[in-house]
Amino acid sequence: MERTARTDRRQALGAVLRDVVAECGPSLRVLSGQAERRAYETDALTVHRVLPGLVLLPADRSQVAPIVRACVRHGVPYVARGAGTGLSGGALPAESGVVIALAKLNRILDVDPDRRVAIVEPGATNLSISAAAGEYGLYYAPDPSSQVVCTIGGNVAENSGGAHCLKYGFTSHHVLAVETVLPDGGTAVLGSDDIEAPCYDAPGYDLRGVFVGAEGTCGVATRIAVRLLRRPEAVRTLVADFPDVPSACETVSAVIAAGIVPAAIEMMDNLAIRACEDAVHAGYDRQAAASLIIELDGPAEECAEQFEQVSTLCSEHACTRLRIARDAAERAAIWAGRKAAFAAMGRLSPEFLLQDGVVPRTRLAEALAGIADLSAAAGLRVANVFHAGDGNLHPLVLYREADGQGPTAEALAADIAELCVALGGSLSGEHGIGVDKACSMPKMFSPADLTAMDRLRAAFDPSGLCNPGKVFPTPALCGEARAGAYQPHPLEETGKIQRW
Amino acid sequence: MVGASSSASHADGGPSAAQGTSADGAGAPEPPAGPRSITPTTLKDLRDAVSTVGAVLIRGTGTATTWGAPVRDARTTVSLAGMDRVLDHRPADMTVHVQGGIRLDVLQSELAARGQWLPYDPARSEATIGGLLATGDAGPRRLAYGSLRELVIGATMVFPDGAIAKSGGHVIKNVAGYDLAKLCHGSLGTLGVVAELVLRVHPLPQTSRTVMVRDVNTALAQKLTWALTRSAIEPTAVEWCEPEQVLAVRFDGTADGAAARAAAARSMLTGSLAELDAGEAHSFWESHAARVVAEPGDTVLRAATRPGIDPGLVGALSAFADRAGVKALLTCSPATGAYTVRVTGADAKAHAELVKNWRTSVEAVGGFVMLRRRRPGVDAMVESWGRAPGSVEVMRRVKGNFDPENRFAPGRFAPWF
Questions:
Q1: What's the gap in Å between the CA of A41 and the closest CA on chain B?
Q2: B149 touches A: beta carbon within 8 Å
Q3: Element (H, E) at A411
Q4: At what angle do helices B255-268 and A300-316 cross, to 10 degrees?
Q5: How far is the alpha carbon of A299 from chain B, nearest alpha carbon, in Å?
Q6: A159: left (phi over 0), alpha (psi -120 to 50) or beta
Q7: What is the C-alpha separation between B366 and A198, in angstroms, rounded?
Q8: What's the confidence (pLDDT) of residue A294?
């Protein structure tokens, strides 16, 4: 029986390959060898690995629709993939499925400085858009820490944020239109009708808004129109060190209570500070219990006025050192340290799991205390570096696989995500649910909520072949064996997740 | 409780009143003529109210009942007037949780008492927040702050089968699950009722200043708009009105900051310009909103195009209006490509002629035109919607999956679905 199923899948993949090669020609790159496919078996969250059956790299966006149509025709699941930095298993391949790797579709097609719009291909990196727009004094605001390598297509799939989203909003706010290959192989521009002349107000349901953040389950983006912002007249950045975590958290609340919306408020705890400082030498104080990076921007007068207020508020909340960036180079160094945080964790631990929960800002101190308790109970260290302004935590659970700590780390990460939900927050702020947190979704959403979401998904993807198994809990993912007797997932046994 | 016969529950233009709340099951007597109106006050009663049979029209304060195509044979009107409270305002988190039936102006005044606001200024300030989401409406300040789709961070919806579902939550950064609130943006009550919303609020700006330039023709309006969008002075709104040919530029911020930006704008802009005092600015923006809303008997079109003021479209509008013998008053948000046209004078045939002709021009440049209001008789001569967007098949499937019996506002998107 199993052998028959495997044979069927192999034959279906073979049929897909024949069709796409015939339709797309030799410029379509095909990776079919096991070693080549291996590079696509995981995103950066390496605890989840599935070897795809076939990897296809379109050389041109016109090749995407034929690939999707061939997959649908032969019943083969597929997932689009950018740089693979999602960290939630959102781009994890389906077993014996197709990966559509969009890395070659990386062009910035147009920058319109008057309308402040850029038309880009999905494989363009986040930072390359700002680089292209920079010529006109413009930039693309959402800035995930991985912006040097992460692609805009992936940002759209995950509605990725970054440090500056507190003031400027998320990917969803900056995407005007998305040209998509829909899961049935048809094409449409969501949010407009002409991707080259995107409008703000396409009539009807906001399908563009649904597509952004749908984790690649509603189709494949082939061109994206993004809104650009004018570079602010002034930018002021400081690093404030605190003797304890609660003081830093109170400072964040005080800044907001003063009616100031900074461009960014980032926080690091001592473990994170030390790792970043050792890696990048950004000038952080290795002794500080917690540090805030606060950046204000905007018109010069308002920026100066509010920066003064912020500096005073830091001093009033037990700040032990206030370091103000004197120029662009110092500002860049401060941010280089923060943005290198995940990579820097290698100095502390051979492996780590990144969590991505969100809590209401006023409950930050409570959340961090809860994480410390969970960390102590699990016997694993947790470093915290996060977007304090919008309550988006990024606890890094440090562990050693060689010591068999993997399952404990997974359980601790799940506990932290669910702690965020218990505090009135969310399972994810920017990385998505993917496969990693799908089994926790019932902690946040009722069966009725999930059913409504599933109805929406089915409207886009009636055949269920577009990035299946993501976002929603499935029996296969959350515990039930694919055949035979039910076998609980280890997390389910510990009560960390529940089946839905 | 369900206020089935309360005086507050009269349907829009309906004969009166409530006709009882019992469901019309199979074999039941024919329902009496005319719509019945239900005004639930709890989520549970709202669910019971929509879990009826026959067509359902959701109503807030009734400011947009004419948007899109007319609804066919609504047997039941469900009013959100009884669900109009602030449930939880958390100033330090910059969030507010409200019921869908709260009026925007009421919400703004409650927020202002604590130094905050929803940075959102559609012309219909007396509309309900749920209705504003459903209509996808936006005002001039959208340029700086976005529309309601950018400010909603959570929603609780009741779907036609009575299912109560929520998405999002109380945190501003959240990507867990699908964003059902976005789906409702622009849905015009065809998918479900927005029973509750969680919104992101902002600190109230200390002040707002408006600089006005007169005698600005289309080409100059375009040029000045691009000069503003290329600058770092960050206008909150840029609006151009025709035939008056005034360009109004608004700045929100700190007292000194907004003053400095307004001064910078005055030095950047050319022509006959002045900064309005607070009273003048208030009057201008009030009259601007009144024009957008218009009055019964007017026809109101809303066009969406790529950002800019297209001289061809403005010229065509003027020529078609002259030909039809009507007056066409235009307000345009050039930096976001939104045009609202109020048509007055002459008869329904002339209005329909203008709609048809100008829609052809707008569609030729990739835009869309919908009818928000029309003079009686116009419907028989012109569709409320123009060409369907390329994604209409997905919209049809969405509608089918959430409302398979087509009970919610049937006909609203005719002829698309």
A1: 23
A2: yes
A3: helix A406-422
A4: 160
A5: 6
A6: left
A7: 8
A8: 98
CA distance A373 to A354: 18
- Contact yes or no for B166 and A362 at CB 8 A: no
Lowest mean pLDDT among A38-47, A429-438, A485-494, B287-296: A485-494
**Is A114's CB within 8 Å of B204's CB?**
no
**CA dist., res. B332 & res. B341, Å (int):** 9
Cβ A203–B366 below 8 Å, yes or no? no
Q: How many CB atoms lie within 10 A of CB B243?
A: 12
The nearest CA of chain B is from the CA of A298 a distance in Å of 8
ipTM of the complex: 0.93
Per-residue pLDDT for chain B (417 aa), expressed as one digit of tens each? 444 433 333 333 333 333 333 333 334 445 455 679 999 999 999 999 999 889 999 999 999 999 999 999 888 999 999 999 999 999 999 999 999 999 999 999 999 999 999 999 999 999 999 999 999 999 999 999 999 999 999 999 999 999 999 999 999 999 999 999 999 999 999 999 999 999 999 999 999 999 999 999 999 999 999 999 999 899 999 999 999 999 999 999 999 999 999 999 999 998 899 999 999 999 999 999 999 999 999 999 999 999 999 999 999 999 999 999 999 999 999 999 999 999 999 999 999 999 999 999 999 999 999 999 999 999 999 999 999 999 999 999 999 999 999 999 999 999 999
Classify B397 in phi/psi space as left (phi over 0), alpha (psi -120 to 50) or beta. Answer: alpha
Interface touch B230/A136, C-beta < 8 Å: yes
Residue in A with minimal Cα distance to B390: A188
DSSP state of A424: T
Do B56 and B50 contact (CB within 8 A), yes or no?
Answer: yes
DSSP codes joined into one string, B324-381: HT-EEEEEEETTTTEEEEEEESS-HHHHHHHHHHHHHHHHHTT-EEEEEE--TTGGGT
CB atoms A425 and B169 under 8 Å: yes
Residue with tokens 């809860």: A370
Task: Name the B residues in 87-116 with CB < 8 Å from any A CB.
Answer: 90-95, 115
Suggest the residue from B173, B233, B395, B408 to mutate for an interface test with chain A (most A CBs closer than 10 A): B173
Which residue is listed with tokens 């604590």? B114
3-state helix, strand, coil in chain B (%, to 5): 30, 25, 45
Taking the C-alpha atoms of residue B209 and residue B204, their distance in angstroms, rounded to an integer, is 14
For residues A445 and B163, the answer to whether their CB atoms sit within 8 Å is: no
Q: Which of 244-263 (B) contact A at CB < 8 A?
A: 253-254, 256-257, 260-261
Helix, strand and coil in chain A, % to nearest 5: 40, 20, 40
From B170, B185, B232, residue closest to A206, measured CB to CB: B185
Chain A contacts of B167, Cβ < 8 Å?
445, 449, 452-453
Asked whether the beta carbons of A382 and A268 are under 8 A apart, the reply is no
> A310: distance to nearest CA of chain B, Å?
15
Contacts of A361 in chain B (CB under 8 A): 92-94
Closest CA–CA distance from residue B404 to any residue of chain A (Å): 11
Q: Please judge whether A455 and B402 are an interchain contact, meaning their C-beta atoms are less than 8 angstroms apart.
A: yes
Q: How far is CA A304 from CA A254, A265, A295, B257, B321, in A?
A: 18, 17, 11, 10, 50
**Residue B178 touches chain A, beta carbons under 8 Å:** yes
Nearest CB partner across the interface for B398, out of A160, A205, A451: A205
Best A139, A155, A297, A426 residue to mutate vs chain B (most B CBs within 10 Å): A426
Instruction: Give the number of residues written for chain B.
Output: 417
Q: φ and ψ at B104, to 5 degrees?
A: -60, -45
Quote the CA–CA distance of A97 and A402 in Å, as a whole number: 31
